[in-house]
Amino acid sequence: MIRVLLVDDQPLLRSGFRALLDVEDDIEVVAEAADGLEGLALAREHLPDVALLDIQMPVVNGIEATRRIAADPALAAVHVVILTNYGFDEYVVDALRAGAAGFLVKDIVPEDFLHAVRVAARGDALLAPSITRKLINRYVTQPLPASCGTGLDELTSREREAVVLVARGLSNDQIADHMVISPLTAKTHINRAMNKLHARDRAQLVVLAYESGLVAPRNS
Predict the structure, then answer these.
(1) pLDDT grade, residue 51 (50/70/90)?
(2) What pLDDT is recorded for position 14?
(3) Rounded distance, CA 109 to CA 97, Å?
(4) DSSP states of the chain as a string?
(5) Residue 206's Cα: distance from chain center in Å?
(6) What pairs with residue 31 in β-bridges?
């Protein structure tokens, strides 16, 4: 059973999302909140698999709530998905860097919404190729943070290769085919790379890959 926390300051939207989720046999909405601070308290109480957070909320916004969830060892298993009205905007990269597993536009079709919740619960990143391209464009025009690159020297050549393929949007099965290894071995390379780079999940691994220069936009 996938346990979901809904955090949005618009009751009608929360009701709509809950109505979609509650009819699924493998998904349970364990709590709802109208602001980020209440959402944090409920996350600690219920330990959901997926927390759906609106970006713009009163008291504590979605990005700060994401940052606090990511920083709390007790919430390490909570996968945050950001909800936005505008698609890829200035807040999305900040949310991914803060620890979000991905983001969804609120006018998403129901089938895609349900699929996204299941993808997030598995620990996979919700980053479509079009979003990855926009991430690339963002980093092409900005100087790299001074802190980027920490841990890259610890990666093996196979781990580096796996990270590059993750950043290009490939799934574990596709990475396994490309590297001529089993999907389990591909997942092992990715998990070890995340540990060495202190990436919370695959979404942060993508951000780190571009920020550090491990993946160059011209090679994507």
Answers:
(1) very high
(2) 92
(3) 26
(4) -EEEEEE-S-HHHHHHHHHHHHT-TTEEEEEEESSHHHHHHHHHHH--SEEEEESS-SSS-HHHHHHHHHH-GGGTTPEEEEEESSSS-HHHHHHHHHT-SEEEETT--HHHHHHHHHHHHTT--B--HHHHHHHHHHHHTSPPPTTTTTTGGGS-HHHHHHHHHHHTT--HHHHHHHHTS-HHHHHHHHHHHHHHHT-SSHHHHHHHHHHHTSS-GGG-
(5) 10
(6) 5
Cβ(35)–Cβ(57) below 8 Å: yes
Q: Contact 122/201 with Cβ under 8 angstroms? A: no
Determine the straight-line distance between the first and last CA of the chain, rounded to whole angstroms: 37
Residues 6+ apart with CB under 8 A from 71: 99
Q: CB of 131 within 8 A of CB of 88?
A: yes
Q: What is the pLDDT of residue 132?
A: 54
- The pTM of the full predicted model, rounded to 2 decimals, is 0.68
pLDDT at position 169 over 80: no
Alpha-carbon dihedral 57, 60, 66, 71, rounded to 10 degrees: 180
Residue 200 contacts by C-beta under 8 Å, 6 or more apart in sequence?
Answer: 70, 76, 99, 101, 194
Is residue 3 a contact partner of residue 46, using CB atoms and an 8 Å limit? yes
> Letter for the amino acid at 184?
L
Between helix 90-98 and helix 129-140 the angle, nearest 10°, is 100
- Position 140 scores a pLDDT of 46
